[in-house]
Specification:
This protein has about 180 residues and is of the alpha+beta class. It contains three helices and eleven strands.
């Protein structure tokens, strides 16, 4: 299997459990692409929603996707610090068209002081019932939430204080 090449521009696509397209991020520069992780960078990119709406991101961001973890992270670089938006979802897949994952609604927003808020629990519960998530899936999502919170509190992986800064410096080398 091939993986996205460093320096290439890829699309990121998220889906819902029932297979419907949820959201597309048009352009992310691959800073590292292996069988286990993809780290990407983007800045003010176009995002298309499944309902036809579209918008642009507001700031530079460093994205972390893992082939074994049921979450991904977006470190957003703002004037007052780094904020993270973390999606609970399947490990990524890569099919030469795009990096893809299933989004399971639950999110965690992490603030520059590393406090966090769990978001969209009601949406997760609604979709869990509507799309009949099996109990095994619910258990994986809940365990992944616990693991993600552990990573945040331990400042592990993308939450390491230097992770976003280091990868942002690399991203700047690829920008036009």
């Amino acid at each position: 299997m091939s993986f996205p090449k460093t320096g290439s521009s890829i699309q990121v696509q998220s889906y819902k459990h029932n297979g419907t397209l949820h959201r597309i991020w048009e352009e992310t520069i691959v800073l590292k692409g292996t069988s286990n992780i993809v780290i990407g960078g983007n800045d003010r990119i176009l995002v298309k929603e499944s309902d036809g709406r579209h918008w642009r991101t507001r700031e530079p961001a460093i994205c972390y996707f893992d082939s074994e973890k049921w979450f991904n992270t977006i470190g957003m670089i703002r004037s007052d610090g780094i904020y993270y938006y973390c999606n609970l979802g399947t490990p990524f897949t890569w099919d030469k068209e795009a990096l893809k994952y299933i989004d399971y609604d639950l999110d965690i927003k992490v603030f520059p002081d590393m406090t966090y808020a769990i978001l969209d629990e009601d949406e997760y519960e609604q979709h869990r019932k509507l799309m009949n998530y099996p109990p095994e899936l619910d258990a994986i999502i809940q365990a992944s939430m616990t693991e993600l919170i552990s990573w945040i509190t331990q400042r592990k992986g993308p939450f390491d204080p230097h992770f976003v800064e280091m990868w942002y410096e690399r991203f700047l080398q690829y920008r036009d």
